[in-house]
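My current task is to audit a protein record that another person submitted. I need someone to confirm that the token line plausibly describes how this chain folds. Take the sequence as given and treat only the tokens as open to question. This is what I was given:
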Amino acid sequence: MKRVKVLDKEFEVSIPAKEIDAIISGLAARMNNDLKNKDVIFLGILNGSFMFAADLYRKITLESTITFLKLASYDGTSSTGVVKRLIGFNESIKGKTVVVLEDIVDSGNTIENIIMQLKGYEPKEIKIATLVYKPEAYKKDYHIDYVGLEIPNDFIVGYGLDYDGYGRNLADIYTLVNDDVKAENLLNFVVLGMPSSGKGTHASKLANKYNLHHISTGDILRDEIAHETEMGKLAGKLIDNGEFVSDEIIIKIIEGYIDRNRDAKGFVFDGFPRTINQAKEFNEMLEKKGIKINSIFELEIDKQTVQNRMIKRGQLTNRITDQDIETIKRRLEIYEETTRPITQYFDNNINSINADGKISEVFQSIINIIEK
């Protein structure tokens, strides 16, 4: 991977120039379609957006104008949270459609500040366009109308983005390198088991004990949908149509989560993968990143105990599906048919754990294997 040094920091290329150009072409095409027959003015936010704004505007076919605003919100590799007032802005935007062009949207402080100030000039509407967007860092409620690319919450330079004023001239976009945490040094576990076998409980306890990230596919899928990420929108549409979310989308969502948490010490995968196909795609994705699973724990438990637990849970939560014995039996059959074969796929890495005992005793059995 190509690296550059900017001042005292090492960065590696993450978004090549060709990909940037393709992203900008896509944004321009959308704007040309959405904003036709409108009185449009583009506002580039300096200093960062000068390259993005220039390249985008060359692809805009609308009858429009462009100008630039000056403000600042960065110091070093962290956002200061302090945004200056608009400098030298004297354009008339009354009754116009204003498209604010940002190089990057992270916390949203700059966006909030700009919108609040521009409203005083009485525009017809304000739209926000950004080359890159950090959904995990965004803390505001303002809608981002045009997003070129969603990225992890990493520090980046190049293509107008800077580190203490340097690096803006780089044609590609580069990500800050963190050599302290390497893929081969991560601690990663998978916890499998029938419904109500205690997967979530022990996955959470493992994550807490070893300071790892707990990945429950259901939780991160709901989070992606709530934040309307690219994968979240695809998954949400499928769910709304009564369809299953494909293995490919699930894997991409997990991969995105891993990429957004590059400083993690490792991950605990809760009840995933669930099928042989998922296991194969999951393995391929991890191998591509140089990540290895240290141990896979399958929680073994008597089926009658599982049925009793699910019925009790259903009574407490008023979930009808957890109280119907035929539904419970079918769920256990599905586990045997689709998930149990995964143990043969991973074979040498599987550790069978008797999960019939007390939570503390079961967890200690898991710890004993890890500590060996």
About this structure: The chain has two domains: 3-176, 183-371.
